């Protein structure tokens, strides 16, 4: 009997139970891989920046490419005004990317396959961008919901649609990442189960699908981190420049 492909998403406690009132804040496998991802980022980029060599080693090259990639992404989507927020966007992009990539390793846990994790990240972005918008423009930030050139008759309806669209940002941002990671890993587990159940002779076709799907999922893991970061830049651009 093939293993249930959904068991890979189970969150379980590691160590003793820790509670604050009715809240369980115990250390879990999800917590573990978030810590591992964070530590890996810190180690790689600290070692990469430790020696500024004329002929960069692999870690330095990785750090420089990542820095240039995120810097260009911010410049292209949010402009020069967003440069002060580079550290936040860079950290967000690398955290999502590393969580996605660690989830590709067998017997690990994909943190971003859980809606609570992606929603907290998206909500943090949404609240932060909204605060920045009001700090920069005051109540003038509300002009974001009133597009220019709209007939007066349609204006109430358009404003309602714009508000709903704005409030749905954290939902769409979080669901996009969660759904793609969960669906991809479920498919990989299903095809992997076919390979095991059919054996070497009968499993060559699902095995070939599994290999192709693994390559596709690695690409999706990168693209979803990129989409998450670039949408954050677009939202930040709205808050800083108020073009609507």
Task: Spell out the blueprint of helices and strands.
Blueprint: E1 19-20, E2 23-24, H1 29-50, H2 58-78, H3 86-102, H4 115-137, H5 155-167, H6 169-202, H7 204-241
Antiparallel strand pairs: 1-2
Helix pairs in contact: 1-2, 1-3, 2-3, 2-7, 3-7, 4-6, 4-7, 6-7
Descriptive overview:
Strands 1-2 form a two-stranded antiparallel sheet. It has helices at residues 29-50, 58-78, 86-102, 115-137, 155-167, 169-202, 204-241, and strands at residues 19-20, 23-24. It is an all-alpha fold. The protein has one domain. The model has no long low-confidence stretch (mean pLDDT 86).
In short:
With 244 residues, the chain is mostly helical. The protein has helices spanning 29-50, 58-78, 86-102, 115-137, 155-167, 169-202, 204-241; strands at residues 19-20, 23-24.
Q: Report the uncertain regions.
A: none
Strand order of the largest sheet: 1-2
Termini, distance in Å?
Answer: 56 Å
On the 0 to 100 scale, the average pLDDT is 86
Count of individual domains: 1
Specify Rg, calculated over alpha carbons. Answer: 22 Å
Instruction: Give the amount of beta strand, in percent.
Output: under 5%
Number of DSSP helical runs:
7
